[in-house]
Structures are given as structure tokens and as C-alpha cells.
User: What shape does this take?
Amino acid sequence: MMLSTIIRTIVVNGVPIGYTDTGDPNGRSGSPVIVFAHSLLFGSWMFRAQIEVLREHYRCVGIDWRGQGGTQPTRDGYDMDTLTTDAVGLIRALRLAPVHWVGIGMGGFIGQRVAARHGELVRSLTLLSTSAGPQDRSAIGRYTRLTWAVRLFGLTWAVRLFGVDLVRGQVARLLFGPAFLTDPAAADTIAEWAERLDRIDSAGSRKAIRGAIGRAPADPEIAAITAPTLVAVGIDDRVTPIADAWRLTELIPGARFEVIENAGHCCVLEQPGVVTALVQSFLAEIG
Assistant: This one.
């Protein structure tokens, strides 16, 4: 059975939020729930390989952040606190709690906050390619230039004006590791990402980038997380260095740490089977 890509919408705090939902497996009610939270410049579609396997035993719900995936841009509300409120609202509105949260990058930033502030909603926490600290200052200039170019010209033209191709250029080299970028079998996935990104309203992309790079650190509050936590990072991740992911592991009591070989920032796409197996094993241990 192929994963449905139909985006549903639910109004949370007055904002229509896009999400996908596999429903209870085999029509059973009360199945455990996994909420999948995507990375910056993606959508919940990036978890389709994991959902295709895990939906056999779990109800799998994917949330799309404002201005990305199936959620339309809003005038404001791209900061991590507001997006956390969006996530909490969706979990409560759909009566999903307690959930197994699987978040990558931006989805990890928000997952930390949900688990720290609303522990009763989270059964477990899987944090992929993410950190607790603010944006690395050395990268802020690069992201800021991209943001302004997107504002003026849209993402595709912005990247072209930088003198690089979107699929094989600077943005792709940030998000994907070298092994994936040079693998002919990965070309279709990268092209699909570029095409999906090009269809997104540039205002949404711009505001999402600004929200992510302007985030406040979560360090002061994540020691309050009590849910079992798995932290994993790609060995070639340029957005989240291994040291940052390890520091996150040290800050969350009892967290487990894994490094994913031959993967950059988008490990769920680059090593889908490895990530799926990690999540399966981790959730099996929790019971």
C-alpha cells in the first residue's frame, strides 16, 4: 500500500494547519501515535519511507509548519514558540496524546519545546539532525543573504542569481551529504525536493528561514524533558555538527545518541532504512 499524500487541514488557534494522517492501522482504535515533524524547506512528505513501514503498527501523523508543505503562509507566527503552540494544538485537537515525536532539524527544535513544556503529551522523543542552541553565528550571514534573495526574487531565481543550480548548488550541499549528492539513484529525490520547494510561496520560505535562524536556545528548559529520548545525526551533517547533537544528548537526562553513516542533514531521505530501523528499535525498547 502506497502512502497517501492527501493533505488535510485543521484550524489551530485560528490558523489552518496542514497535516497527513494514516489513521489507526487495520481499522483498530487506540493505536500508538507517531507525530512526524519535518525540517526547514521540506514538508511531512520527507518521512514517507518511515511512515510506509511504521504505519503497520502505529497511527502516523505528519505536521506541516507554516509556509511549508501543505500549510499556507501566514503573516507572522514563524518563531519556535508559536510553532510549538501549533503542534500542541494539533495534538490536542486530534486527541493524539501521548505521542511518539519524531522530528528532524526544525521539527526537532519544536519537539524539544513540546516535550519540555507539555510532558504529558509526549511518550517518546526522537530528535534527528537537530540541536538545542541558537543558530551558529558563522552561518547566519549565509542564511540572511538567502532570505533577502528569496524575498526579492523567489527561491529558484535567488539560487540562480547566486550563480549555482538549485539541485546541485549551495542549498543542496547544506542539506544533503556528499555520498547522497553523488549517487545517481538519489537524483530523483533531490529533483523532487527542488520542484516541491519551487512551488512553495516565497514569502513562506523566507519567513520560515528567518524563524529558524532567529530561534532562541532551548538549553535552559530541556533538562525538564522526562520522555525517553533518542538523538541521531548524520556523520556528514553540515547544518548540525556532531558536537552540537552530542551536546543536546548531554542536556536531556538519559538520552541515547547515534551517528548515521553516509548521511548529511536529511538523514531520513539519505538513509531511510537505517533511520526507520533506529526508530523501530527505539520504540520497541520503550514498549
